[in-house]
Amino acid sequence: MCPPHWPYLWSFAAPPVVRNDQYDTAAQSKSRHIPVEVFQAIMKWVPPLEVLKFRRLSRFANACLTDPYLAYLNLSLFVEPLSNRLSQRSRMNEVHVHWPTPLDRIWNRFPQSFQAVYADLALVGMTALLLSDSKMGGQIPSLIGRVNTLLYLALDNCKLEGTIPAEIGHLKALKHLNLSKNMLSGGIPDELGDCESLERIYLGNNKFTGSIPSVLGRLVKLKHICLSHNQLSGALPEELAALANIYWFDVSSNQIHREYSKRLEDNQALVRLLQEQRFYPAR
């Protein structure tokens, strides 16, 4: 014999076809008969790619399915820990690379509670997150800062929008950052200057505005900087003279002033790269 509330639970798995103005009212009326714990216990078995679709049923369903506790219950069943996904060869090397899963490609579009749990379960400890050309869309989640073991972050050509989150500055070990060929906008965050291990930065072919942050001069390990094909303006900061290891510097196709400070002449390697792009010293 079915328990008295079973019909109401079944209605969430197979909701009736009703008009939009009736749908939320009908679902919420039924949901009053369902204990939160029971609803979450059932929904934790639904694959994460499907479970979030049920948020649209009602405010009750949305609150249950965006709860951090439900996120942990659900993802812990369907997400394989990073340690299991790494090959034996990867475990032996410094760089932990794995084949990206479908969830890796869309986790940035989850509710924040799911993003946080996913980062903790599947990404923390990872040293290389390589999702180039994945067309994942959405924005760079601020929770990327949790994965502070990253050495390589490649999200180029992923149809990303929005800004670079300030939490990028938490990635102290990051050596390689590639966010090129997206639709990212806003300014280049000053927090990027906190990524003290950076050797390569590729931000070209986006919609960045504002000036080049002077804090990039702190990144003395930098060898490659590509900021081309953006909408950057202003003068080249004098602090870039400190980039003693610079080998490639591309700021072409922006609105940056063509004159550069004489202080930059202390860095002859940088001056040669600038002159190749038709920059000239201030008089």
Automatic annotation (TrEMBL):
<keyword id="KW-0732">Signal</keyword>
<keyword id="KW-1003">Cell membrane</keyword>
<dbReference type="Pfam" id="PF00560">
    <property type="entry name" value="LRR_1"/>
</dbReference>
<keyword id="KW-0433">Leucine-rich repeat</keyword>
<dbReference type="Pfam" id="PF13855">
    <property type="entry name" value="LRR_8"/>
</dbReference>
<protein>
    <recommendedName>
        <fullName>F-box domain-containing protein</fullName>
    </recommendedName>
</protein>
<dbReference type="InterPro" id="IPR001611">
    <property type="entry name" value="Leu-rich_rpt"/>
</dbReference>
<keyword id="KW-0677">Repeat</keyword>
<dbReference type="InterPro" id="IPR032675">
    <property type="entry name" value="LRR_dom_sf"/>
</dbReference>
<keyword id="KW-0472">Membrane</keyword>
<dbReference type="InterPro" id="IPR051716">
    <property type="entry name" value="Plant_RL_S/T_kinase"/>
</dbReference>
<dbReference type="GO" id="GO:0005886">
    <property type="term" value="C:plasma membrane"/>
</dbReference>
